[in-house]
Amino acid sequence: MKKQDMNRDWIATARTLSQALPYLQRYTGATVVIKLGGHAMGSDEAMEDFARDVVLMRQVGVNPVVVHGGGPMINAMLERLEIKSEFVNGKRVTDAATVEVVEMVLSGLVNKHIVQAINRQGGKSVGLSGKDADLMICDQTNPDLGFVGTPAEMNPEFLQELFATDTIPVIAPLGAGRNGETFNVNGDTAAGAIAAALTADRLLLLTDVAGVKGANGDVMTELKAQQIRDLTAEGVIAGGMIPKTETALSAIEGGVRAVVILDGRAPNACLLELFTEHGAGSLIRGD
Questions:
Q1: β-sheet bridge partners, residue 270
Q2: Which residues are annotated as a binding site?
């Protein structure tokens, strides 16, 4: 690369940083919960890029909390162990054998992979699950589904203590039952419950689509809660987007300022959303 081109790139970088200043100031001290889906984790390179972004967020005063899924990894391990799954109305039944595998994969393999990536980028991260410090006490969602839980009681105080030491929590979506059970919790649901318990400024749902699409197929950059309800009733919001928008509405009702559904595969997606004027994905606010 010619010296003149290099100078031009550095000037562009400096201008970008300068333009980001109001947004950096805006989010100083803010809590941002990030749901990292199994499909959005992508390659090792993508994980390193995500980790670098999270460390940068912490460096400029944001309190990031990462809540992760791991569906593809769970499926692969169940297949490897030859544990067959049963389904009720399209939902996996989590029996005693399956929940052991879920905990092993989420709290072990996936959780520590993310923690190590953040630490390699210079951050200070610790891996947890919703069972630690009774963060997420759950009730059984449906007896027919086995050990699948719905968050019923949240205790986020120890997360605030981690913020005070510049520590980035990485949380596996497992909850504790009232009788010592381990419950598998939908990752989006867990992230929404944690964000509401922390009264987070933002909940970022990283997925494998660009955002909520309107009837014409274009991504809608800003929506109100009632628009989400109307689009769902009209069938425009359908399929796998429904549980994500339901999580968004529940989180907003619980006190989260805004929720963003965005493509986690896009480079620097979180930074673009928080620290640029145009943002990324679909921003959902209350009415």
A1: none
A2: 70-71, 92, 184
Residue 264 Cα distances to 26, 154, 169, 221, angstroms = 23, 27, 19, 16
**Distance, CA of 197 to CA of 192 (rounded, Å):** 9
Checking if the pLDDT of 247 tops 80, the result is yes
Q: Domain tally for the chain?
A: 1
Indicate whether 119 belongs to any domain. Answer: yes
Inter-residue contact 65 to 31 (CB < 8 Å)? yes
Q: Provide the residue range defining the domain that includes 105.
A: 28-285
CATH code of residue 227: 3.40.1160.10
Amino acid at 92: R
Contacts of 69 (CB under 8 A, 6+ apart): 35, 36, 37, 38, 173, 187, 188
* pLDDT beyond 70 at 6: no
Question: For residue 19, is it within any domain?
Answer: no
CA-to-CA distance for 102 and 160, rounded, in angstroms?
A: 27
191 near 154, Cβ under 8 Å?
Answer: no
pLDDT of residue 2: 59
Three-class DSSP category at 87: strand
200 domain residue, yes or no: yes
Q: Is the pTM of this model over 0.85?
A: yes
Q: Tens digits of per-residue pLDDT, 20-41?
A: 777 778 889 999 999 998 666 7
Contact call for residues 76 and 70 (beta carbons, < 8 A): no
* Distance in angstroms (rounded) separating the CA atoms of residues 50 and 183: 28
Residues annotated in a binding site for substrate: 70-71, 92, 184
Q: Is residue 265 part of a domain?
A: yes
